[in-house]
């Protein structure tokens, strides 16, 4: 397998408020009753929501974020890097798509939108997994 180590110096973020309120209830390895095995999978879900509605949210100040991993985690699923680069290529240009910092910045901004919407959807919900399934099917493409 070919890996892309250029992403190892790029940080992946989850808003601190979301992390504190939901991550323990949404992420757990080897537990089929929990929605996500890894935080990167939750981040990708949030990223997908942002992309689906075509909305990017600038990252808040660092003290309001939790760095859950670096971009090296993307190497475990190399298709993610390809998808991110293709998205940036479609939105910007070839130079931006070949810049790991720009690619991850774009992805983090889409994820911030997803986390904002997920916070609104999940706050006060008891069965997060069931609600997540219903929510993702209700999102309409902009």
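^ Assign residues to that structure.
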């Amino acid at each position: 397998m070919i890996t892309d180590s250029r992403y190892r110096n790029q940080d992946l973020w989850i808003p601190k408020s979301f992390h504190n309120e939901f991550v323990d209830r949404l992420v757990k390895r080897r537990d089929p009753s929990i929605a996500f095995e890894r935080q990167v999978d939750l981040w990708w879900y949030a990223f997908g929501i942002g992309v689906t509605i075509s909305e990017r949210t600038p990252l808040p100040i660092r003290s309001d974020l939790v760095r859950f991993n670096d971009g090296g985690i993307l190497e475990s699923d190399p298709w993610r890097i390809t998808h991110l680069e293709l998205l940036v290529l479609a939105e910007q240009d070839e130079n931006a798509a070949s810049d790991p910092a720009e690619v991850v910045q774009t992805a983090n901004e889409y994820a911030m939108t997803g986390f904002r919407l997920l916070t609104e959807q999940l706050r006060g919900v008891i069965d997060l997994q069931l609600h997540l399934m219903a929510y993702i099917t209700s999102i309409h493409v902009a």
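The CA atoms of residues 35 and 74 lie 19 Å apart.
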